[in-house]
Amino acid sequence: MEDSSASAPLWVGRFEQPMDAAAWALNASLDVDRRLALEDVRVNQAWAEALHEAGVLSAAERDAIVAGLGTIAHEFQTGTFVFRASDEDIHTAVERRLRELVGPLGGKIATGRSRNDLVATDFRLWLLGQLPHLEENLIQVQMALLTQAEASGDIYLPGYTHLQRAQPVLLAHWWLSFFWMLERDRQRLGDLYPRVAVMPMGAGALAGAGFPIDREKLAQRLGFLAVSQNSLDAVADRDFAAEFLFVAAMLGVHLSQLAEMVVLFSSQEFAFLELPDRFATGSSLMPQKKNPDLFELTRAKAGILLGHLTALMTVLKGLPLAYNKDLQEDKGQVFAAMDTLLAVLPVLAAALRAINVNAEHMQAAVTDELMATDLADYLVKQGLPFREAHAVVGRVVREALALGRPITDLSEQALQAIHPLLTRSALAILDPVQSLARRNLSGGSGPQAVEAQLQAARVVLNQRRVPILRENVRSIRTSETSIGL
Questions:
Q1: Looking at domain 2-111, which of 1.10.287.380, 1.10.275.10, 2.102.10.10, 3.40.50.970 is its CATH number?
Q2: Which residue ranges does the record assign to the Fumarate lyase N-terminal domain (predicted)?
């Protein structure tokens, strides 16, 4: 809802003329930062308590302000809050409405604080509340990958380097390779949390509040882990936003790599995977088509996420201390990145669970030349230096290619002509099951190593990387759709 009636901006006293309408539209940020509505209410409530403890507000004044802010929170939650054309941002809107509810007393809430420290605090509090949701959705994708790995049994397929067939690997090992990429992303979310959970409130505009605010107590009340150590840095710091955008971009890159492999392996040229109809699309022209659009879109989102990171880093580059209006451009990038991930991850998790595996096609693609390294290792055990063994087996492969036949079809005579240690019996080593069985070292692609890896994956899924924000801070949060977002 929006009301056309106007009230004066918070900074109007210095100015004789109203701001140009187009300039006002450019300057205002309400369309973006209204998502911080409930965080702004919560921080203002905690600030009123801090002002009371500092002797600025009486108990009655504190209670009236906190109650007024509670009414505002209810209005946001029920969608009945009326924004005005004069609301420059969410902070202006909340303070303006508070003064409407409690009269001039509402103006006392601004004592000792600035929008500079308020917006930074709101923003951090919002991100702290969102990180657990992001982790929960990321875990669902990891669970889908683990489910596929557990169902893969002893199925094997070619592993690739340079997109050329390389060596056989278990399908479970292949699925788990993406699991561990995402686990590193989840660890980065956990590592990020304590750097987000540093409270700027009390830094004022840049020099610190002029009243004896107990910042440590205020931080504890809001659920922060620490207070900022330098007021200049506190209002200018957007490292946490840039770091989140890096984590989001890195996650996007990993999801893109996974999506690319699904697109590739579900093509008719590979036919290793098949997408269920409910996670595929068709062609408006060609009736036979079944397209992996959802995975292609996942792949594309990596570029969008990288763009958000690049945009914010470019904004931050070269800014003078302390606060600058440039920093208004921070929230849109973070909000958009979070929205993108929270839209992609649930769909990707469900689609991965539903993918069908064509084991016959996968295993048929493991031809005997993929065990060439095993044959070289055999020659090493017979006493040849590896580089010599590598060259000998290279000649074996070349001979088979020239004849257009598998290596296992080469005659004893042909093998002996290449090297006296080569015999027909030696070619028995060119077996994918045996090849895998020889790779049971920790982290390897052998059956025992993969079983240990599955166990390790189950363990890490039970570990929460991102703390859940204290319940008293989350208590007033509700669906953002009810705020008209």
A1: 1.10.275.10
A2: 13-304
CATH 1.20.200.10 positions along the chain are 116-364
The yes-or-no answer on residue 361 being catalytic is: no
What global pTM score does this model have? 0.93
pLDDT, one tens digit per residue, over 240-293 is 999 999 999 999 999 999 999 999 999 999 999 999 999 998 989 999 999 999
- Determine the Cα–Cα distance for residues 196 and 226; give it in Å rounded to an integer: 10
Element (H, E) at 251: helix 239-265
Structure confidence by residue, pLDDT tens digits, 213-231: 999 999 999 999 999 999 9
What's phi and psi for 157, nearest 5 deg?
A: -155, 170
CB 177 within 8 A of CB 445: no
Q: In degrees rounded to 5, what are phi and psi of residue 430?
A: -80, 65
CATH 1.10.275.10 in the chain is located at: 2-111
368-459 CATH, one of 3.40.630.30, 3.50.50.60, 1.10.40.30, 3.40.605.10: 1.10.40.30
Q: Which residue is it, tokens 């839209």?
A: 343
Record the tokens describing residue 441, joined without a space.
């070292």
Rounded distance between C-alpha atoms, residue 395 and residue 415, angstroms: 10
Distance CA 281, CA 348 (A): 15
Cβ atoms 7, 84 nearer than 8 A: yes
Three-state secondary-structure class, residue 441: coil
Instruction: Tell me whether residue 266 is one of the annotated catalytic residues.
Output: no
198 is written with which tokens? 């540093």
From residue 79, give the alpha-carbon distance in Å to each of 75, 129, 339, 340, 397. 6, 21, 21, 24, 71
Helix (H) or strand (E) holding 226: strand 226-227
Could you say which of 5, 162, 284, 425 is catalytic?
162
Contact between 59 and 116 (Cβ < 8 Å): no
From-to residues of CATH 1.10.40.30 in the chain: 368-459
Report CA-CA distances (Å) from 222 to 45, 49, 474. 10, 11, 10
Distance CA 460, CA 465 (A): 9
pLDDT in tens, 91-111: 999 999 999 999 999 999 999
- Tokens for 428? 């028995």
Catalytic residue (choose from 58, 283, 411, 475): 283
Angstrom distance (rounded) from CA 242 to CA 333 = 9
- The total of other beta-carbon atoms located within 10 Å of residue 53's CB is 15
The tens digit of pLDDT for each residue in 353-386 reads 999 999 999 999 999 999 999 999 999 999 999 9
